[in-house]
């Protein structure tokens, strides 16, 4: 139980975090939505910690999977989704793009938006990757596709695009899904549907996939992978669990050929990830010894119920961090009043969120994407999150025996869901080590480090923040290529 004082303290730390990280909030709202969720769990003591089969699969039949078997109809829908060109796209685009809605319920109320880019070369043999961003409530299209691993980046004029040399469609066909309904262009015409949580998100993402495969039948049996970051540390293992459970007893063409999942800077355990964040603040010199000692002494990270002293020290901790980009502690922050921007191949422009938001709100862009006119924002303001397990570790642990490959990767300059959080989470599973800790190489440089456990691999990406492909595009591409080929990234620099 919380005293009134303690709830006030929580409120204070929320306000402080939002104010102090205001600039970075603008730069990336994914984790602030996560923070708000954790705060609401604390104040409402909502704790849905169960990981039973029933948690994900109760009252969930295949009834919403479209029974549309009309091949020609599906072909027409697919052709209608083809994007001729995005406004302002550069010359030399040599791959196909599709964008549109997929209905996921029988009443056709919920419509989920997808953006799909094929690989320019050998797309018919390359794997299919679904990318998911977190929040909860943030857009995989606005972040993943337009700022991280997609084929384009929005230029600072917010009107033109440039090619991302390290786009993941070099090695895969990549599908971006805005999920659940209420995020980005995805919507429902019944606002009751905006009351959602992990369970419904997994359920409708699964139905989305089944229906998407009807529109793109050539991908039905393709090797399929799910990757993403942040709160997708919930979405990805949960969706994988639903897919594998639903695959049981299905005919081969109804099976989703899931081969692996890769989770970047994932929020996978409320308590261990919080503890890891404060420890990272200390080890990277964002916090004083006194504050670290205070947190060590007063915070237990065993439940949401912490003492007033703990709340106070956490408050002090945020204040000490100051105004930096917490998602990449060494990066510049966005300053819209300066003209000195440095958008170049390897330096991520911290104002990208602004350019993307402005670009995606242009009527001609929305028309090209085949969406209904929408005030698009990177993270949703309409969702009420109803369920979220305290820990996803039991789900991840359950997947380890399924034979799919499981990679947890971590940009090592992210302060929001840092490497320490991921390490504490994995360490709590006490898994036997199969591959000893070693560096991995990207061309002549160390791209990061890795360690292989039984059924699970941890990799760091050196010098990358929360959005790994934004900050280290080349290293991220090397890493994901290895992942898709089912092998570890290079052992040496030769
Ligand atoms: C948090 O810090 C602010 C200013 O630094 C202070 O006004 C506030 O009372 C603090 N709250 C708690 C619970 O310590
Ligand atoms: C929602 O949209 C579907 C089709 O787009 C329509 O059949 C249904 O009646 C709509 N419902 C409401 C409440 O507007
Ligand atoms: C495409 O496939 C062909 C035939 O399998 C192969 O020879 C070629 O190297 C592939 N190209 C790329 C870029 O993967
Ligand atoms: C909207 O959804 C709620 C909850 O499922 C349902 O009770 C209600 O009838 C729906 N309204 C419409 C107009 O479909
Ligand atoms: C933003 O840039 C302007 C112009 O260079 C400068 O005057 C201002 O101090 C900067 N603001 C911040 C918060 O860095
Ligand atoms: C979500 O919660 C807010 C207040 O917490 C409430 O005003 C709003 O109506 C809720 N929305 C839905 C869709 O339940």
From TrEMBL:
<keyword id="KW-0964">Secreted</keyword>
<comment type="similarity">
    <text>Belongs to the peptidase S10 family.</text>
</comment>
<keyword id="KW-0121">Carboxypeptidase</keyword>
<dbReference type="GO" id="GO:0005576">
    <property type="term" value="C:extracellular region"/>
</dbReference>
<dbReference type="GO" id="GO:0005773">
    <property type="term" value="C:vacuole"/>
</dbReference>
<dbReference type="Pfam" id="PF00450">
    <property type="entry name" value="Peptidase_S10"/>
</dbReference>
<protein>
    <recommendedName>
        <fullName>Carboxypeptidase</fullName>
        <ecNumber>3.4.16.-</ecNumber>
    </recommendedName>
</protein>
<dbReference type="GO" id="GO:0006508">
    <property type="term" value="P:proteolysis"/>
</dbReference>
<dbReference type="InterPro" id="IPR001563">
    <property type="entry name" value="Peptidase_S10"/>
</dbReference>
<feature type="signal peptide">
    <location>
        <begin position="1"/>
        <end position="27"/>
    </location>
</feature>
<dbReference type="InterPro" id="IPR018202">
    <property type="entry name" value="Ser_caboxypep_ser_AS"/>
</dbReference>
<dbReference type="InterPro" id="IPR033124">
    <property type="entry name" value="Ser_caboxypep_his_AS"/>
</dbReference>
<keyword id="KW-1015">Disulfide bond</keyword>
<keyword id="KW-0378">Hydrolase</keyword>
<dbReference type="GO" id="GO:0004185">
    <property type="term" value="F:serine-type carboxypeptidase activity"/>
</dbReference>
<keyword id="KW-0732">Signal</keyword>
<keyword id="KW-0645">Protease</keyword>
<keyword id="KW-0325">Glycoprotein</keyword>
<dbReference type="InterPro" id="IPR029058">
    <property type="entry name" value="AB_hydrolase_fold"/>
</dbReference>
């Amino acid at each position: 139980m919380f005293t009134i004082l303690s709830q006030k303290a929580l409120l204070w730390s929320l306000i402080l975090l939002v104010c102090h990280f205001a600039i970075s909030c603008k730069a990336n709202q994914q984790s602030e939505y996560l923070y708000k969720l954790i705060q609401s769990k604390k104040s409402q003591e909502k704790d849905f910690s169960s990981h039973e089969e029933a948690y994900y699969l109760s009252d969930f039949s295949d009834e919403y999977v479209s029974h549309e078997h009309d091949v020609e109809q599906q072909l027409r829908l697919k052709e209608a989704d083809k994007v001729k060109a995005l406004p302002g796209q550069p010359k030399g685009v040599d791959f196909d793009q599709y964008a549109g809605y997929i209905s996921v319920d029988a009443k056709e109320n919920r419509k989920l938006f997808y953006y799909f880019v094929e690989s320019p070369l050998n797309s018919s043999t390359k794997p299919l990757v679904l990318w998911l961003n977190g929040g909860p409530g943030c857009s995989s299209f606005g972040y993943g596709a337009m700022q991280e691993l997609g084929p384009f980046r929005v230029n600072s004029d917010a009107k033109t695009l440039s090619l991302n040399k390290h786009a993941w469609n070099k090695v895969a066909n990549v599908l971006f899904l805005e999920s659940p309904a209420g995020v980005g262009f995805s919507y429902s015409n019944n606002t009751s549907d905006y009351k959602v949580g992990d369970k419904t998100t997994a359920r409708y993402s699964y139905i989305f996939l089944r229906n998407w495969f009807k529109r793109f039948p050539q991908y039905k049996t393709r090797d399929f992978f799910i990757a993403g970051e942040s709160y997708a540390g919930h979405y990805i293992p949960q969706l994988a669990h639903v897919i594998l459970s639903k695959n049981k007893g299905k005919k081969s063409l109804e099976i989703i050929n899931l081969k692996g999942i890769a989770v970047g800077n994932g929020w996978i355990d409320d308590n261990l990830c919080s503890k890891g964040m404060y420890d990272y603040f200390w080890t990277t010199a964002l916090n004083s010894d006194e504050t670290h000692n205070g947190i060590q002494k007063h915070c237990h990270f065993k439940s949401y119920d912490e003492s007033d002293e703990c709340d106070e020290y956490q408050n002090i901790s945020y204040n000490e961090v100051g105004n930096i980009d917490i998602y990449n502690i060494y990066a510049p922050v966005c300053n819209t009043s300066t003209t000195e921007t440095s958008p170049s191949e390897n330096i991520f422009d911290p104002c990208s969120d602004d350019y993307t938001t402005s670009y995606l709100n242009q009527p001609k862009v929305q028309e090209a994407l085949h969406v209904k006119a929408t005030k698009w924002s990177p993270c949703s303001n309409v969702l009420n999150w109803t369920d979220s397990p305290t820990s996803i570790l039991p789900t991840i642990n359950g997947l380890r025996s399924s034979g799919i490959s499981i990679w947890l990767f971590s940009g090592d300059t992210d302060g929001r869901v840092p490497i320490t959080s991921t390490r504490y989470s994995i360490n709590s599973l006490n898994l036997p080590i199969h591959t000893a800790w070693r560096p991995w190489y990207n061309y002549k440089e160390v791209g990061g480090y890795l360690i292989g456990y039984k059924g699970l691999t941890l990799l760091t990406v050196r010098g990358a923040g929360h959005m790994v492909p934004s900050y280290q595009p080349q290293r991220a591409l090397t890493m994901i290529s290895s992942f898709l080929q089912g092998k570890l990234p290079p052992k040496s620099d030769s």
